[in-house]
Amino acid sequence: MRDLPDDFIVDCGFVMGPESGYVEGTHNVFLRRVYRAGSTIFFEFVSDAPNLHAKYLTFSRDIAEIDYAVEFTELLPEAPIFSTSASISEVAPTFCPEFLWEGYLITGLMPSIVARLADGAEIKRLDGDAVVEPALIQNLDQGMLVSLELANSDRTRVTAPEDCPDIVWPYQTGIVFVNARCIQGDVRLREGYNASIVQNTADNTITIGAAVGSGAGEPCGEVPLFDGESSPVSSSNNSLAGGPLCNETLRSINGIGGPQFTILGGTGVSIVPDPDNHCIEIDVNLIDLALCISDFSQVSVSL
User: Which of 133, 158, 198, 277 is packed most tightly, with the most Cβ within 10 A?
Assistant: First the structure.
């Protein structure tokens, strides 16, 4: 390989992929071997980067190829085998193929190459041979975003009061709901409800934050986490969270907020709780009023 004629390779260059594990000054690219099988000549390159072990980048030439032919090639990772039973409510492994490494090769005078390499012949490198110049290598390891996934954490859902039946949804809850996987290429981010997006070109970051009224503003109702999200089976108000709506919750009385109220009934007034209907009856019945008795009834309300 040390005596490989200049006719074989005129120029070459390589780009190490974002998940190659390649580190400048530590790893290298080598011309592993040149061999001929029938009418095809192969140029096989290899790298000692940890994620490129035995991941050869191979170029080929027909013996009738024109002189100074140029070829570009890339190596993609093999797709892993995943279960096909994963639903939208399950977080399953994803495969977003991004090249491990790629490169180009320019060969020289084909008649000269063919004359030096008979069918079945092979030229292999020895240790220390055929190291590609670092200037011909562009390293993108950990230098770019490979893909995006769109998902929502589960919402805060109501829990059943003590001694009450469990509240049941028609799907699994308490997990991350994935809406889209392997978003690649040109991506445009749009602010949703109460959301803000800030791009910093100085350090190449995008920050997605929350701010009341920002982005699309405040929603008029509950926003589904995924298509087809529904309320609990026993819901009476179609609330996705399963609890009372904002207009169904007592927040304050005469400007006094909770979470606990104590209502006192003075002389002539009775406080009668009605838990079955979730209400309190204030009965001004004037009982004991003529006797001027200052006795009163009392009830506490927790929000």
Answer: 158
